[in-house]
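User: quick one, sequence for these tokens?
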């Protein structure tokens, strides 16, 4: 008769991060030096792509740059980061303009436009160099069971692991949220962002342009390749996306020039085009028993004013700060409540700000259009209002996490 033996217990961690995208990887890097046992679960590693002049970028504000510096990855990003030294906000068909400059803020740059590729590679290289995080990659979360002491995570390949705290960084369609039966509020903007790059006859001068049109904003941001290369993000109604993607380069450029204007001269070359449907998704909760939500798993926003990823990085910085002050068990209710309380106001303010911008500038009501015009003029001419908006766009306001302040 054979002896009956118990199965080996699953490996145990203090924190399990589900989702190894830019937010999840940033959190893993930030928690790695703290002495806690951390696991990172990611379906696929970052693709090994080569740099290209038209690759997709993301705009980091000053607070996010400070967070990446504190995480030890900014030195790797800096050579590929294009400084944004000023911004220019306008509305098609109106002369009102709002301008912000780094000099007004006493900074070298308001922010930086950085290739997504570079951020992903820098974070994963940093993780591997630190060597303290258990990487489950590729791996997919299949099940999640919680009890008073922690959670058991079941992976699709049959592996199991235990964690005192699970942090969901797995995107707007969060699997963690689905498994826990936590709902979300979704607003479909019936738009897509067409993302590309252009070369212009006039140099960008480090200026990021955002121009509002009745169909949605069009933005051009400086890239590092040369003084005439910009990222292009053109918000397009869902009904027009297929036609704009199918248009010839010459047709697309002509339409984009007509929408943007002549501040950067002519568009002389167009990069690859990709369309990304736009919606706002707000999780019904920032926490559940033994679980926290960060990044797009907590809130996915319209890209207007480039707020979404920067908000997610402040989630990361707050988790690090809260866990630094936590006791031996990072998943107790007091820790979860502290995180949710610190993030609620920032999330509400930024989600409301971006949503109001989209709806305000997409409204064709004639009287409202005049108010928008006066608002842009007031923003440029009223120092207190201008300073408040600049502070918001730099990533400060509310309970700003220590890492975002350079601490």
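Assistant:
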């Amino acid at each position: 008769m054979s002896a009956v033996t118990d199965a080996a217990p699953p490996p145990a961690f203090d924190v399990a991060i589900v989702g190894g995208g830019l937010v999840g990887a940033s959190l893993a890097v930030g928690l790695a030096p703290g002495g806690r046992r951390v696991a990172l679960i990611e379906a696929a590693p970052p693709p090994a792509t080569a740099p290209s002049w038209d690759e997709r970028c993301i705009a980091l504000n000053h607070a996010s740059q400070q967070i990446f510096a504190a995480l030890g990855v900014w030195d790797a990003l800096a050579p590929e980061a294009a400084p944004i030294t000023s911004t220019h906000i306008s509305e098609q068909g109106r002369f009102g303009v709002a301008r912000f400059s780094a000099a007004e803020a006493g900074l070298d740059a308001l922010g930086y436009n950085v290739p997504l590729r570079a951020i992903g590679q820098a974070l994963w290289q940093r993780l591997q160099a630190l060597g303290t995080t258990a990487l489950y990659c590729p791996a997919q979360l299949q099940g999640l069971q919680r009890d008073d002491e922690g959670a058991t995570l079941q992976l699709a390949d049959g592996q199991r692991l235990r964690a005192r705290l699970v942090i969901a960084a797995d995107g707007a369609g969060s699997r963690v949220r689905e498994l826990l039966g936590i709902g979300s509020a979704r607003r479909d903007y019936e738009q897509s962002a067409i993302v590309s790059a252009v070369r212009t006859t006039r140099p960008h001068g480090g200026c990021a342009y955002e121009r509002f049109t009745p169909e949605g904003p069009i933005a051009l941001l400086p890239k590092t390749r040369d003084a005439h290369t910009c990222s292009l993000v053109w918000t397009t109604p869902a009904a027009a996306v297929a036609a704009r993607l199918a248009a010839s380069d010459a047709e697309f450029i002509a339409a984009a020039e007509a929408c943007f204007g002549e501040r950067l001269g002519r568009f002389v070359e167009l990069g690859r085009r990709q369309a990304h449907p736009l919606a706002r998704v707000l999780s019904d909760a920032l926490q559940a028993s033994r679980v926290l939500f960060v990044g797009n798993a907590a809130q996915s926003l319209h890209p207007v004013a480039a707020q979404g990823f920067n908000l997610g990085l402040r989630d990361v910085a707050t988790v690090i700060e809260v866990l630094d002050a936590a006791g031996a068990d990072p998943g107790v209710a007091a820790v979860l409540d502290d995180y949710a309380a610190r993030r609620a106001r920032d999330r509400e303010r930024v989600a409301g700000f971006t949503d109001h911008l989209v709806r305000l500038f997409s409204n064709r009501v004639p009287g409202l259009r005049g108010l928008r015009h006066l608002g842009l003029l007031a923003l440029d001419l009223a120092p207190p209002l201008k300073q408040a908006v600049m502070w918001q766009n730099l990533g400060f306001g509310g309970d700003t996490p220590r890492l975002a302040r350079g601490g």
